[in-house]
Write a structure and sequence with these properties.
By secondary structure, the chain is an alpha+beta fold. The chain has eleven helices and four strands; from the N terminus they run H-E-H-E-H-E-H-H-E-H-H-H-H-H-H. Strands 3-2-1-4 form a four-stranded mixed sheet. This is Nucleotidyltransferase family protein.
Length: about 270
């Protein structure tokens, strides 16, 4: 039977665990724990989390990133952002088994707010694995694969397309286009999946699965969904690929999303 990532009660299960971290990545995780604790301290840090392929147990040495997310006691300030960059740089230098480290920041009160409950809150409760501190998931609801969740997680794609097109015009090198393609491809693939998520009735963060599932409902777009996934995973993103994603698939997703789930309210 196909796994739909749900608990027995039909709510979305948390997808990662420290016990799933591959052996080669465990020293990186422990170093991240120590460096975050030293850089932020209890007055600033509420809790820290892993997400992505490392806690899901699917990370590939030399290819996968170490993705970290910090919930601070107050809104992040420039000092926090500088400390996060320092942690990233230290981990990058020390551990060749990761392609890079990324540290995201938010405030715990914001993640628990009504505004973020079905976006940042869902991200922490279902897509993040606790590493340090008290788990915010204990204060958040159990989530179901609903239209509300679809709208709040990916209903703002239309705001991103103009920014990506501007970056595409400025992308002069293959490396620039590849970096943009990774961001665009991953977001479009996940948006295609959440478009059909309530109909499918489950959750997955596996990019290849997202294309396969979305393609069942929109077979005429299946090739573009697969292109988005391949680009998101690092395939070359030449000008033609970026045009397809930004000027065809992207606008179609915005229109279809609005018709089915509505649009996410802009954040101020």
């Amino acid at each position: 039977m196909e796994s739909r990532g749900l608990r027995p009660d039909g709510t979305i299960a948390r997808e990662g665990a420290l016990s799933r971290v591959p052996a080669m990545f465990r020293p990186v995780v422990e170093a991240a724990r120590a460096r975050i604790t030293a850089a932020f301290g209890p007055d600033r840090l509420h809790s820290a989390y892993l997400y992505g392929s490392v806690p899901r147990g699917t990370a590939t040495p030399g290819v996968s990133d170490l993705d970290l997310f910090l919930a601070l006691r107050h809104e992040p300030v420039d000092t926090d952002r500088g400390n996060a960059r320092a942690v990233e740089e230290e981990l990058d230098r020390a551990f060749p088994q990761i392609a890079g480290a990324a540290v995201g920041l938010a405030s715990a009160p914001d993640l628990l707010s009504d505004r973020e409950r079905y976006d940042g809150g869902f991200f922490v409760a279902c897509l993040c694995t606790p590493l340090i501190g008290d788990d915010l998931a204990a204060l958040l609801p159990r989530y179901r694969p609903t239209s509300l969740l679809a709208r709040e997680t990916n209903g703002d794609l239309g705001l991103l397309l103009p920014r990506w097109r501007a970056r595409a015009r400025q992308a002069m090198t293959e490396a620039d286009r590849k970096a943009l393609g990774r961001s665009v491809g991953r977001r479009l693939a996940r948006t295609a999946f959440t478009l059909v998520m309530p109909r499918w009735g489950g959750w997955t963060s596996d990019l290849k699965c997202t294309a396969e599932i979305a393609g069942r409902y929109y077979p005429e777009r299946a090739g573009q969904f697969r292109l988005a996934v391949a680009t998101g995973l690092g395939s070359p993103a030449d000008a033609g690929v970026l045009r397809t994603l930004l000027d065809d698939l992207g606008p179609w997703l915005v229109t279809e999303y609005a018709a089915i789930h509505g649009l996410k309210a802009p954040r101020t």
